[in-house]
Amino acid sequence: MLTVEHVTRRFGGLVAVDDVSLNVAPGRITGLIGPNGAGKTTLFAVIAGFVAPSAGRVLLEGIDVTAEPPHRRAVRGIARTFQVVQPFAGLTVRENIAVGAHLRHRARAEALCRAEAIAAEVGLSAALDQPAAGLTVAGRKRLELARALATEPRLLLLDEVLAGLNPSEIRDMIPVVHGLRDRGITILMVEHVMQAVMALSEHIYVLAEGRLIAEGAPETVARDARVIEAYLGHGAAARLDRARAGHG
């Protein structure tokens, strides 16, 4: 579905992403993890077209989209969420979602109808006619996800969609993400909630200081000495091992 080939992004003297290559298989959830400042969000911005790479290519189903702007990639089926959620505060939840739906549905009635269906999918039906400004953090995260889904993506880039949520809210969101995968949406997710990303992802890439340091199945990555040293720490790695043993 997605191929990133030798992507580098420099900001002046800073190399934020350094010769990164990865593949995202269709119909799967792929995780992208690493410490703060590792280059994860910059890589997302390159994939979505908001930032041009200094070197390398981005391909969607074999088509080179490196030079295409974000709106062209959206038409092709790439959508992303943002770490900092900024809904249109003066609009209702329904109207916010409809903004995304207008990419595929020009008529206002169609876009609003589509917004209602997506709100049901992410658990926002009860808030459809509320002002977006009044939503809780968890509600705003769901709205951010809904706005991306409204563009009817085939590849969804989730940037810390679980950040700021309490454990109960995280548990509620996990089946929502699984449900998107189950209906055929390919997902690449950046996440710091390790137990969630390990439970959701089928394959994980690890970035540190802009470089790819490991990849593989969640259980393999969690035991990788480089990943433990650069990111997880021994305590977190042990907790993930215990969590997996409990689920087994």
UniProtKB/TrEMBL annotation:
Residues 2-234 form the ABC transporter domain. Gene3D superfamilies: P-loop containing nucleotide triphosphate hydrolases. One of its GO terms (cellular component) is plasma membrane. One of its GO terms (molecular function) is ATP hydrolysis activity. The keyword rRNA-binding does not apply. SUPFAM superfamilies: P-loop containing nucleoside triphosphate hydrolases. Keywords: ATP-binding, Nucleotide-binding, Transport. Pfam families: ABC_tran (PF00005), BCA_ABC_TP_C (PF12399). The keyword Transport applies. PANTHER family: CONSERVED COMPONENT OF ABC TRANSPORTER FOR NATURAL AMINO ACIDS-RELATED (PTHR45772). This is Lipopolysaccharide export system ATP-binding protein LptB. It comes from Rhodoplanes serenus. The lineage of its organism: Bacteria, Pseudomonadati, Pseudomonadota, Alphaproteobacteria, Hyphomicrobiales. The gene is lptB_11.
